[in-house]
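[step 3/7] fold_predict: job queued, chain A
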Amino acid sequence: MMFSPKSLFKNSIKPLVLAIAFSSSPHGYAENALWDMSLEELGKIRVTTLASGTATPLDKAAAVATVITAEDIEAMGANDIDEVLETVPGLHVGRIPFSSPKYNIRGITSTHTPQTLVMINGVPISSLYIGHPSLVWGGMPVKAISKIEVIRGPGSALYGADAFAGVINIVTKGSNDIQHNDTGIQAGSFNSLRSWVNYGARKYNTDIGLSLEYSQTDGFDSIITADAQTLLDSLTGSNASLAPAKTNMGRNTLDARLQLEGHNWTSHLGYQRRYNLEMGAGIAQAIDPNAKFSSDRINADFSYQLPTFVDNLKINTRASYYYADQQAMVNNLLYPAGSNTVYPVAVFPNLFPNGVVGNPEYREEQARFNINGEFNGFNNHIIRAGVGFFWGDIYEVTEQKNFLPNLLPRPNGIEEVADTPEVFLPEKGRTSYSIYAQDEWLFDPQWALTTGVRYDEYSDFGNTINPRLALVWVNNNKMSTKLLYGCAFRAPSILELFATSNPVILGNPDLNPESIDTYELAFSHQMSSDFSYSSNIFFYEINDFIAFEFNPVTLAKQAQNIGHIQGQGFEHEMTYTPNDSFKLTGNYSYQKTKDKTNGGTVGETPNQELYLRAEWEFKPQYSLNSQVNWVGEQKRSANDDRNPTHSYTTVDINLQAKQVFKNVDMALIIKNAFDEDVHEASQPPLKPLFQKAFVPNDYPMAGRSVFAQMSYKF
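[step 4/7] structure written:
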């Protein structure tokens, strides 16, 4: 029997694509229109599972979402996930004093930005201790990533705590994603070296995906001109500051990922090792050239689809485990040798001749179990429901330090204060239970209504209920409009609740969880096979926002519910592909956030961002990819009288050569090609105790860097 290309497309390839795009989704209301689309058009459909728990094309998803594929990451020349996330509209990667990033979505930011839920393969990896991945995060390499899904806006109705400003889901490569086994090496600026291997196979009726990646770097050497000790020197008369000095950003990393998949089950195992991890501007915002921390993280999960005897019913279970630790490899200097902290030299001469030492260490474990069902036996409805259990524990909290709670020296020098009231954090645990239900109702061939609600019960602060509502209209698969509402909450972290005996920050056991209500209107249009665009506007209100505010009794920052925040803005995205050899993508975002309690701005996040990326295959097997990222000025918070940070523009270039030799690809990657002076906003001053910021001239970022890369497919 003979098949024409057209019949082959219609009878085999196209149904497969449609099945992927509309699997378990009510959004097949546009399926008839899809039969009229070309294979090229179908190949451009990006699918997310974050919005509703089922695979759904982006323009029909019940949320404002972005999907970044492995091909996108390669075109960017990105080495770390932070470089990738910076390209998402409305998402800015800021910095805290030490090595961790701040994922600011739509202007929602705080000391550590725990308002963004980070997941790997759908399992949260946010630390119970601090609310985001970890103080000793150290980034995440990208060679093992299949795609990154980002929801801008609340996701608590599906994902619970911390899905507040947005959700980031990192999907790692399985066997089906590794089309060619490959290994590679990259070397470049800052004595950076990176190597990796990806291997996929099918053995014993099991798909196996394995990824390994190792990297080492001295880190960028930008100069910090003044630090916290500079300010203490001016107040106490000491001369201890090491500034000006370079930012300490060196690290060694090891990442391993294993995915096993059978007929009705999937398992993931991940290991992340960070060592020789330097603390950037210093853990207390005073330069420390010697501090090094290490961290180990293990995450594992197992999913199984249970057999059922009811038509149109699927029941899935998932169990997961997470472990993390934080260890000081050498003594960490909060303040350098010769520091007099807050006491004048005339009163206490040479108070800390060897510096102020503090080595906070801990271990953490988490376990989760979820069972959810999906039923599509009702006409035009898909009903999802589930229950979940969470257990988390922080244990083996230890601290070696040479200072008393009043910042005077300990008589015996450095001492272990574990199991005493002077340790930085008591050992605490948390449990929670959850139940949720969601209905996707196709009440018209072009209209879908998603409603859902989730109830969470916590062991340490009570319960919370979070609803969601999404109305989606799709016109002939070319145009869609969404009206979205979501309510979300953020549970206070253990640090925010219980931090103690800390000269910098203190917890508050009386905190309420943060809550947010978000309203969105989104529009997208596939004008032609070459050009598409989307726009959305949003408004949100936050109550009981948690921030560390000055406490006149303790003379430290203490976690407090500071009140009411409002934010609004819009985001635009476009894609233009005039031919097979050229592609242009871009986005622009604007947001404005106000602290209604004091009438000032929230600060520490840009109001505007613009991103453009051009991909040009100028010869067969050769391509030039360039991207431009403009970040607008970052205004200060109400208690910070410094001028806004300067806007900046960075240009990255990625020259790729495929099959230079048999199975060998090469690339030359240039970051910040024009050596733009980039600074990220530092934290505001601790008024009224200190009138100036600890790092007054903000955090310097990397200048121009160059990397050469070679990979081999086997």
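[step 5/7] annotate
The chain has two domains: 1-44, 46-713.
Residues 1-43 have pLDDT under 50 and may be disordered.
exit 0
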